[in-house]
Amino acid sequence: MQTAVIGLTLAACAGGKTPQAPSAASPTAGSNAILSTVPATDAPLAEGDCRLFPSDNIWNTSIADAPVDLRSDDYVQSIGVDDPMHPDFGAGLWEGGPIGIPFAEAGSLTRRESVAFDYADESDPGPYPIPAEAPIEGGADSDGDRHILILETDECRLYELYDARHGPDGWTAGSGAIFDLRSNGLRPTGWTSADAAGLPILPGLVRFEEVAVGEIRHALRFTAPRTQRAYIWPARHFASDLTDSALPPMGQRFRLRREFDIEGFSPEVQVILRALQDYGMMLADNGSPWFLSGVPDDRWDNETLRELSRVLGRDFEAVDVSGLSVDLESAQASP
């Protein structure tokens, strides 16, 4: 593996993921009264007693006033100025699996499992607390990324697996990462995670409970079809052989333009759009353009979520968050 340099790096690619086929939400499932179904006390910024990283983590830091990146127009053009945003989550099933990236909770009594990794040199060895019925992204028969996300609430750790499978000899996965949710620590330089950018997945997902109480206070996760052979803070890994500087690097933050009028959208969609204006979204993997990630939940109204398709690539701008970095080896952000 080559040595990474600060900012745009040329570290060796050891865990790039292939784009998933576009998903489509089932038109029949969901609720028409999302914002009135969950009391505010049920949707903190964390699950259980664990926050999804400290409040000064870059995931939880507003970038509403961050400067526009000098390559913003190029990056947006490369992803697609006329391509719509797509909610890659929803209610019901698509091709036999839940729509979105599910996660499971575990505790100190959950059985720990050994996992054999394809990219063992960039994976945390574990063991991993995998519940017996842990949901796999796309369902048990999926041929996609097959993520398993596990929030261990007793030790406040996040365990994430890519291409996870269970066979006669136990668990295997492409790669795996363990995050201490009480820490701002990053992956080692050049390491992948369960995501191509070397970032955690769960903190960037849209969750029903947050939308239901009317506020998302963290950055979101999205994909782009072509990325640069580079990554920027807080990402740690790339998944491309393309060196065109007009392509966005992994970890690039984007923001919905402040002048974009959100008033004509349903209240629950406005919650997501406000988050995209205040916290933005991080480029985390190769995939379809402007696909926004979330947790599947049968309480979503898929028809309402489709309003997000009225938001086009031209409505976003890339922002420069380098000035928020306290230390390039930490995810801590300055106020």
What do these coordinates show?
This protein is mainly β. It has one domain (34-324). The protein is built from 4 helices and 19 strands. It has helices at residues 72-79, 208-213, 267-278, 302-305, and strands at 46-47, 50-51, 86-88, 93-94, 97-98, 104-106, 112-113, 115-117, 128-129, 148-152, 157-162, 165-167, 170-173, 175-180, 220-224, 253-256, 281-286, 291-293, 316-319. The strands form 6 sheets. The protein has a 6-stranded mixed β-sheet. A 4-stranded mixed β-sheet has the order 6-10-11-14, with no helix packed on it. The relative contact order is 0.25. Residues 1-47 have low confidence and may be disordered.
Number of strands: 19
What's the rounded overall pLDDT mean? Answer: 88
Sheet bearing the most strands, described? 6 strands, mixed
Uncertain runs are: 1-47
Following the backbone from N to C, one meets helices and strands in this order, namely EEHEEEEEEEEEEEEHEEHEEHE
Proportion of beta-strand residues: 15-25%
Which value, in Å, is the CA radius of gyration?
Answer: 18 Å
Measured distance between first and last alpha carbons: 35 Å
Q: What is the multimeric organization of the chains shown?
A: single chain
Task: Provide the structure class.
Answer: mainly beta
How many helices in DSSP terms? Answer: 4
